[in-house]
Write a structure and sequence with these properties.
single chain; 3 helices; binds zinc ion
Length: 70
């Protein structure tokens, strides 16, 4: 299935989606892949957990300072 992302592409998309919104087509392909691939679904959950943990850290530790731009 050539239209289906590979796991490597999905990992890249997942990482990128943390920083910027994905194209509609990329989002659809990502969702499709995550439905059939347990490995990537797990990676997504870990990334999401990491991100929310990071956000909390910023909110608590750097409350009165501007967050560093990445
Ligand atoms: Zn996968």
């Amino acid at each position: 299935m050539a239209w289906m992302h590979s796991c490597r592409q999905v990992a890249t998309l997942l990482t990128r989606s943390m920083d910027e919104p994905l194209d509609f087509v990329d989002r659809v392909r990502l969702r499709l892949h995550l439905r059939i691939c347990g490995n990537c679904a797990q990676v997504e959950q870990q990334l999401a957990a990491l991100k929310s943990a990071g956000d909390e850290l910023f909110a608590q530790g750097l409350g009165d300072k501007p967050a560093p731009r990445v």
